[in-house]
């Protein structure tokens, strides 16, 4: 039995139709397990094809699906009521009141710090206990200390690092590198068993390059060397920027290339530097006496790759020069022409070198005739053969008519000026507004053109005087059409030819002269008349004391007859707004209806509406 | 006799858009862009009263014959204000227009007010209606563009429109006579002249025409003033036609003499702005006594001149 009537409007029937009316608002809740997983689950957790009625065998036969067993089953003895516990309130933690955003904030605020033993930013003095012995290898000299300082910044005491302790278990000692041991042949004892661990690779700290400045920045005159006798030092821009900091302590002594010797000095200094560098940064290969400190190192294992330090050494043989050269004040030849030094960072090129010899041009033979194609653009076409030579001969003189004829230059015929507008228009335009106020020459040409058109309509084309040009004729014609005044003005000038209009300021109250009294009356344009019908409002006619037109009355009568439905609606509206017999009705709903005021007045209700009103509202139809 | 300036009144700040004589001619009402309506004695030139209440500038003024009802229409107000002049108070606001109301006219007894708006409609109001919805009697929608000026005669409503036509709604015959003038230019002003036989029509092509109402033929045409961009109003008395102009002069034509040439008889200076409106004294219109004020003109520089 269908409790609800099935409507054809809502579909064929069925549950699906009910869902048609549902409006889906919002998004689905995400469940903890995915859709797929949900599909694989059954409502009670039993396997999918579990059958509750068929016996399939099994040890729990008889008790399958129950709590019971052969021994029986006892329910839990004590019934523990949770009533008491329910009264207890669960402790509310602040996290319960937090939403995802707050929880995320907490997570973000949690910062992970390295505690105690695991801290890496330990003071250098702590770990500087034994830098030298940690760093294995043959680095000797003043650099060792510097190196060690850097390295120790990232080193911690060996015991505190877990990785270190692990490696120590495996046989590593702090200060060693990683890799296979290299066999060392002891020179003295020929003991091959000695094996050396690989050198440690330095931990690079990437510091930002701060010395990004140009020539002359940050250097005071006092920084620069006064003489070249001191040892040259390495500059800052080493191959490895990190190690550039190593050399900060050193003096910024730069070679001076401003001496008279110039490039030679530089070269010499460079060589000196290289040698001293070699002496300095030697990995125990060559001692002063040429002997190696640790003996010859023969690598029989894998070919040891060049470490970064090695490469650094190689690069520093040829130092890159970015520091500015500062001119030495003692050299007088280094002053500029006004006696002052050049700007800091600039080197004065020796004047002797800057002069270059000026060589005279070749001697031009007498019979040479040059062809000058000066100022000719690429885009010009090549002139006719033969004319070039002729023109060049006559360069400097005006080209006369004979020359033109000789050269074969043909003139295109000058077009005649066509009068493009008829004479009446021209005359009218002459009387009207004159354009080109700002360009009197053009205005004069315009007027001349108009005169031409006005005076000789039938003469056809005529060749112009010098000023008028045929190109402007269409433009002038257009202007004449535009500024031709309308017929009201025209009428003034019918008989008197071309006169000027009433323009310019006049004394107030001046009387203009009337030429003739027999002129035709200035007439405007006659109006085009059309007649329509309209119905004045009844009240309007009443107030104006005017009898309304006949067709209005007839229409009103007809309208009243047709307004039954409207009236009913009106009455209903009035009923709703009616607040009593003495109340006034404000039929604002009716503002758009075409009922006149009088009809509205008629419909002011003072009595209760009849039963038909109620039936129309609560009735069966619609 | 050349008209001379009798009084130059500069009470208004800003453009004076409308200036009318009252029915007796003793008083002058001016309404301007400064949202005030000022009542001035035309003989002495002194300001008697100021009516404030408009929210925006005033575009048109009209007064009934018995001076009981002054109607003013504002710009963006979209309303017609009815004033009690004796008390200098606003009695009513008639609001139904969709756009700004540009012109207004009042019937002789003051019971009917007709207003024309930029929204192409002319609305007829009943001032005696008790409540606002019933005040609007009719809406005339025949125009295709804004209404520029209105005249209310005892039996007709004449409206000129920017679409270039002047429409005469005759209440007795129930007909609208549409006169469209060939130039297609907006008609800015329409006035009734010569005991209702002619219509004075001013359009934006710089011409004023005298049109016979019986057949629509043009009787005379006057020109010389400048009317290209603004609504410049004109008026006609028994023998003269006057118009404002955008060049700051008041142009006066003698109907009989100047109808041949169309050029102005007088060109009166005195304003320094666009002369918005000109009106003749009621006595000049009816052809009675002379000797007092003859003409009124108002301009965009805030000056109002009473000519004699």
- Which secondary-structure class do the elements of chain B indicate? mainly beta
Mean pLDDT across every amino acid position of chain A: 64
The number of helical segments of chain A is 23
How far do the termini of chain B sit from each other? 10 Å
Shape of chain B: globular
Largest interface: A-B, 52 and 63 residues
Q: In which range does the helix fraction of chain B lie?
A: under 10%
**Into how many domains do the coordinates of chain B divide?**
2
β-sheet strand percentage of chain A: under 5%
Helix share of residues of chain A?
25-40%
Report the count of strand segments of chain A.
3
- Rg value of chain B: 18 Å
How would you characterize this protein structure?
Chain A: InterPro entries: DUF1604, G_patch_dom. Chain A: This is G-patch domain-containing protein. Chain A: One of its GO terms (molecular function) is RNA binding. Chain A: Residues 159-179 form the G-patch domain. Chain A: Residues 253-292 are annotated as: Disordered. The complex is a heterodimer of chains A (622) and B (308). Chain A is built from 23 helices and 3 strands. With 622 residues, chain A is an all-alpha fold. Chain A has a two-stranded antiparallel sheet. In chain A, helix 15 (423-431) runs antiparallel to helix 16 (440-455) and helix 15 (423-431) packs across helix 17 (473-483). The model of chain A is unreliable at 124-139, 228-262, 281-288, 290-302, 327-331, 383-394, 487-519 and 578-596 (pLDDT under 50). With 308 residues, chain B is mainly beta. Chain B has 2 domains: 1-16 and 193-308, YVTN repeat-like/Quinoprotein amine dehydrogenase (Methylamine Dehydrogenase, Chain H), CATH 2.130.10.10; 53-180, Methylamine Dehydrogenase, Chain H (7 Propeller), CATH 2.130.10. Chain B has 3 helices and 28 strands. In chain B, the strands form 7 sheets. Chain B has a 4-stranded antiparallel sheet. Chain B has a 4-stranded antiparallel sheet with strand order 2-3-4-5, with no helix packed on it. Chain B has a 4-stranded antiparallel sheet with strand order 6-7-8-9, with no helix packed on it. In chain B, strand 16 and strand 17 (175-181) form a beta hairpin. Chain B is globular. In chain B, 61% of the residues are buried. The model of chain B has no long low-confidence stretch (mean pLDDT 87). Classes of the chains: A mainly alpha (622), B mainly beta (308). At the A-B interface, strand 3, helix 19 and helix 20 of A face strand 13, strand 17, strand 20, strand 21 and strand 25 of B. Strand 3 of chain A pairs antiparallel with strand 17 (175-181) of chain B, so a sheet runs across the interface.
């Amino acid at each position: 039995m269908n409790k609800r009537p099935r409507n054809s409007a809502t579909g064929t029937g069925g549950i699906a139709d009910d869902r048609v009316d549902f409006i889906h608002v919002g998004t689905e809740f995400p469940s903890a397990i995915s859709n797929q997983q949900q599909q694989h689950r059954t409502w009670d957790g039993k396997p999918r094809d579990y059958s509750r009625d068929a016996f399939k065998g099994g040890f729990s036969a008889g008790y399958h699906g129950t709590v019971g067993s052969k021994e029986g089953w006892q329910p839990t003895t004590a019934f523990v009521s949770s009533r008491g516990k329910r009264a207890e309130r669960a402790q509310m933690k602040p996290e319960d009141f937090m939403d995802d955003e707050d929880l995320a904030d907490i997570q973000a605020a949690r910062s992970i710090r390295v505690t105690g033993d695991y801290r890496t930013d330990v003071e250098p003095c702590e770990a500087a206990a034994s830098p030298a012995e940690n760093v294995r290898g043959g680095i000797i000299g003043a650099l060792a200390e510097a190196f060690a300082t850097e390295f120790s910044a990232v080193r911690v005491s060996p015991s505190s690092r877990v990785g270190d302790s692990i490696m120590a278990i495996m046989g590593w000692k702090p200060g060693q590198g990683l890799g296979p041991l290299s066999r060392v042949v002891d020179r003295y004892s020929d003991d091959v068993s000695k094996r050396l661990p690989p050198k440690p690779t330095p931990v690079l700290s990437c510091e930002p390059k701060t010395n990004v400045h140009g020539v002359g920045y940050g250097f005071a005159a006092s920084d620069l060397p006064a003489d070249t006798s001191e040892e040259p030092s390495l500059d800052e821009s080493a191959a490895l920027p990190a190690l550039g900091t190593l050399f900060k302590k050193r003096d910024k002594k730069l070679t001076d290339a401003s001496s008279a010797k110039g490039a030679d000095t530089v070269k010499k200094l460079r060589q000196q530097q290289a040698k001293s560098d070699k002496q300095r940064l030697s990995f125990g290969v060559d001692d002063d006496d040429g002997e190696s400190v640790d003996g010859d190192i023969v690598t029989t294992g894998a070919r040891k790759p060049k470490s970064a330090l090695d490469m650094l050494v190689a690069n520093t043989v040829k130092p890159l020069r970015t520091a500015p050269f500062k001119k030495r004040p003692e050299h007088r030849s280094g002053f500029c022409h006004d006696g002052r030094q050049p700007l800091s960072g600039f080197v004065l090129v020796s004047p002797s070198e800057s002069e270059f010899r000026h060589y005279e041009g070749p001697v031009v033979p007498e019979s040479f005739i040059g062809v000058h194609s000066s100022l000719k653009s690429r885009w010009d076409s090549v002139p006719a053969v033969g004319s070039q030579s002729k023109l060049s001969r006559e360069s400097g003189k005006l080209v006369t008519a004979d020359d033109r004829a000789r050269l074969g230059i043909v003139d295109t015929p000058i077009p005649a000026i066509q009068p493009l507008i008829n004479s009446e228009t021209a005359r009218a335009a002459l009387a009207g507004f004159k354009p080109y106020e700002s360009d009197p020459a053009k205005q004069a040409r315009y007027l001349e053109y108009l005169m031409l058109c006005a005076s000789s309509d039938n003469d056809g084309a005529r060749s112009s005087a010098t000023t008028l040009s045929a190109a402007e004729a269409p433009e002038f014609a257009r202007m004449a059409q535009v500024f031709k005044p309308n017929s009201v003005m025209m009428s003034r000038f019918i008989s008197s030819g071309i006169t000027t209009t009433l323009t310019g300021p006049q004394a107030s109250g001046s009387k203009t002269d009337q030429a003739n009294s027999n002129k035709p009356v200035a007439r405007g344009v006659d109006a085009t008349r059309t007649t329509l019908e309209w119905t004045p409002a009844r009240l309007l006619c009443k107030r104006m004391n005017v009898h309304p037109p006949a067709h209005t009355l007839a229409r009103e009568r007809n309208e009243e007859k047709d307004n039954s439905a409207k009236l009913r609606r009106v009455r209903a509206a009035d009923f709703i707004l009616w607040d009593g017999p003495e109340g006034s009705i404000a039929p604002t709903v009716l503002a758009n209806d075409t009922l006149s005021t009088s009809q509205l007045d008629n419909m002011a209700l003072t009595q209760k509406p009849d039963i038909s009103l109620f039936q129309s509202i609560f009735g069966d139809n619609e | 006799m050349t008209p001379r300036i009798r009084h130059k009144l500069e009470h208004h700040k800003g453009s004076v858009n409308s200036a009318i004589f009252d029915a007796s001619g003793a008083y002058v009402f001016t309404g301007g862009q400064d949202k005030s309506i000022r009542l001035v004695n035309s003989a002495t030139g002194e300001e008697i009263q100021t009516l404030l209440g408009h929210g925006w500038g005033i575009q048109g003024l009209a007064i009934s014959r018995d001076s009981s009802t002054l109607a003013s229409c504002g710009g963006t107000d979209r309303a017609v204000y009815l004033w009690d002049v004796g008390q200098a108070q606003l009695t009513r606001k008639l609001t139904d227009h969709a756009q700004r109301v540009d012109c207004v006219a009042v019937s002789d007894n003051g019971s009917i007010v007709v207003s024309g708006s930029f929204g192409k409609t002319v609305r007829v109001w009943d001032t005696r209606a008790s409540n606002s919805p019933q005040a609007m009697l009719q809406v005339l929608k025949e125009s295709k563009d804004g209404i520029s000026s209105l005249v209310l005669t005892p039996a007709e409503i004449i409206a000129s429109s920017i679409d270039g036509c002047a429409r005469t709604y005759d209440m007795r015959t129930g007909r609208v006579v549409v006169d469209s003038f060939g130039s297609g230019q907006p008609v800015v002003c329409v006035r009734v002249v010569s005991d209702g036989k002619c219509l004075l029509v001013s359009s934006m092509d710089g011409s004023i025409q005298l049109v016979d109402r019986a057949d629509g033929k043009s009787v005379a045409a006057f020109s010389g003033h400048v009317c290209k961009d603004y609504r410049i109003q004109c008026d006609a008395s028994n023998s003269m036609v006057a118009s404002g102009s955008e060049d700051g002069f008041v142009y006066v034509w003698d109907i009989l003499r100047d109808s041949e040439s169309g050029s102005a008889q007088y060109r009166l200076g005195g304003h320094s702005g666009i002369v918005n409106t000109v009106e003749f004294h009621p006595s000049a219109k009816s052809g009675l006594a002379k000797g007092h004020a003859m003409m009124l003109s108002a301009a965009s520089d805030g000056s109002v001149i009473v000519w004699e």
